[in-house]
Design brief:
mainly alpha; Rossmann fold; three-stranded parallel sheet; two-stranded parallel ribbon; globular; binds nicotinate mononucleotide; binds 5,6-dimethylbenzimidazole; nicotinate-nucleotide-dimethylbenzimidazole phosphoribosyltransferase activity; glycosyltransferase; Nict_dMeBzImd_PRibTrfase_bact; cobalamin biosynthesis
């Protein structure tokens, strides 16, 4: 299902920002999870017919859902997938295996139900919002100047915030944007250092020479803008793209609405990094669904101290790895809710 309509009543609850300054202010006052509902989940896990902790990370997922939804028992009945699409001036630098027109072509495919994310969303029982953002007007090539000015940045951020449906039980952000592994790698290099090549991979399928070109483009771009990058949001505006900015907006909107977030691959996690770099703790409501084949993703997760749930050799984006992990989360909750306790089943506890 493609859901691009807003509930009018819910619209009023959705904050939007007039400026990056207002956004930075909001990042200083983020709601925390509810420790009581998290503890209630852990308490039931201890009563279920299994040795304590033997469902491993499935137990962690259930407590995380309860803590961030702020309810016990937590729910998985209204998951939402948001796929944002944007185009990149940097794609002109020969850094992708595909031409930029594929972004728009894939958006049409999402709208018709033909992409991997459509089938995975059906499997999860999730609403899918497909949000193309100004595809005919790519963000500027960061070799020439900042990818976005402040107005363009705030507009894309607000679009991401508005896409999050109030009352969702879980958000899976995803993206589509030819050239965006270069933008994501540039954001990581600018914020976390290392050498550019360490953040570069094959993306949608370039060969070794292409990867070297990508690293050089990132080195030049980040060197050019270094003095203007004071925090994560600056890096996102100067090096990113509208779909990456919108993902960051959706992650923040979810935090403000007590909706836990299942992150996807390298580009999605780079969007999250921008929030984290501006406000440590901003990703406390996020789990990482999988580690992608893009080598920078593993480095990035190590920096964020986030352990991915899955490692499936995915390198697709669209939110696919997050949605597969969300299916796992639903399964974890089913165990939690449906299993018998030791007392109910008459099983000895020791
Ligand atoms: O999510 C990932 O880790 C991931 C890794 C490699 C490629 N992608 C997808 O491939 C596209 C970007 O690849 P590229 O080579 O054009 O930078 C973009 O649409 C992403 O969704 C996504
Ligand atoms: C076909 C295609 C599908 C994608 N989905 C996400 N990124 C993509 C890149 C390409 C090239």
């Amino acid at each position: 299902m493609t859901d691009m309509t807003d509930l009018p009543a819910a619209q009023a609850e959705r904050p939007r920002f007039d400026s990056m300054t207002a956004l930075r202010g909001s990042l200083r006052h983020l709601p925390e999870g509810d420790e009581d509902t998290g503890r209630a989940a852990a308490a039931r896990e201890a009563m279920l017919t299994k040795p304590p902790g033997s469902l491993g990370r499935l137990e962690e997922i259930v407590a995380w859902l309860a803590r961030w939804q702020g309810i016990y028992p937590p729910r998985m009945d209204r998951p939402q997938v948001c796929v944002f699409a944007g185009n990149h001036g940097i794609a002109q630098a020969g850094v992708s295996a595909y031409p930029p027109v594929v972004t728009e072509q894939m958006v049409r495919n999402f709208e018709r139900g033909g992409a991997a994310i459509n089938q995975l969303s059906v499997a999860l029982g999730a609403r899918l919002a497909v949000v193309p953002i100004e595809l005919s007007r790519p963000v500027a090539n960061f070799l020439d100047g900042p990818a976005m000015d402040e107005g363009e940045f705030v507009d894309a951020f607000n679009i991401g915030m508005a896409a999050v449906r109030p009352g969702s039980s879980l958000l899976c952000p995803g993206e589509m944007g030819i050239g965006n592994t270069t933008a994501a790698a540039a954001i990581c290099h600018a914020l976390l250092g290392g050498s550019p090549i360490e953040w570069c991979g094959r993306g949608s399928g370039i060969e070794t020479e292409g990867v070297a070109r990508k690293a050089e483009v990132i080195r030049l771009g980040v060197t050019r803008h270094r003095a203007d990058i004071g925090d994560g949001l600056d890096a996102l505006r100067i090096l990113g793209g509208r779909e990456i900015v919108a993902m960051a907006g959706s992650i923040l909107a979810a935090r403000l609405q007590r909706i836990p977030v299942m992150l996807d691959g390298f580009i999605c996690t780079a969007a999250a990094l921008a929030l984290h770099a501006s406000a440590p703790g901003a990703l406390a409501h996020c789990m990482v669904g999988h580690v992608s084949m893009e080598p920078g993703h593993q480095r990035l997760l190590a920096h964020l101290e986030k352990r991915p749930l899955l490692s499936l050799d995915l390198r697709l984006g669209e939110g696919t790895g997050g949605v597969i992990a969300a299916i796992l989360a639903r399964t974890a909750l089913q165990c939690h809710l449906g299993m018998a306790t030791f007392e109910e089943a008459g099983v000895s506890t020791s």
